[in-house]
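ESCALATION

Customer reports they have been waiting on this structure for their group meeting. Please prioritize. Original submission:
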Amino acid sequence: MKLEKSYNSTMPQEAIKKETVSLKIKERKRFRFPPGYGDNKIVVLARDPWWIFAYWEIDRDKEEEAIGRIRSSGDSPPKSILRVYDVTNINFNAKNARSFLDIELNGIATDWYINVNLPERTWIVDIGIVTNKGDFHTLARSNVIKTPRFGMSDQLDAEWMMPEEEYWKMFSLSGGFGVGKGSLEAREMIKKRLEEQITSGGMSSDIE
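Update from on-call: job pushed to the front of the queue and completed.
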């Protein structure tokens, strides 16, 4: 009887504990990061001289509105694309790009690495819909970016210039060819270079 009373007296407490744990699990499962924030935009960044990175969020209502217009005109919207424009040295008006390339998207993509393969050029990216008739309907337009120059800058002062062989060695050590040996050796090379400049009087200061 004592065992039975002990068992019966502890059951409500155990049940309460289990229910509390169950509620906590449900609360944790209930939270989800939203799939979007209601924006309608595309942003591009330069990764290196040859690649740019784009990410975007398209408002579903705006997309449906565009699809409705396309269908009402007797056309159909077969695919979504990124249209990448080379706008180097021009005032872009959506029709005067030097060239462009199209990248077909799948339905769930929200970012893309784009191989533009041209250093020191200016780019704009549109995301939109291409119809069966070939018409392009823009949903969002990106910011303007410029891919960096490949190689040594021609803006260096004479006393800071280094032989091209030395530059490429430092570029490789820093991981520029994807086989970086870490930054220690590169830092040692830079330190040595600065010491040589100071010893030779190659560096100067306007502060007296």
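Sent to customer with the following note: The helical segments are 2-30, 60-72, 164-173, 183-200.
Escalation resolved.
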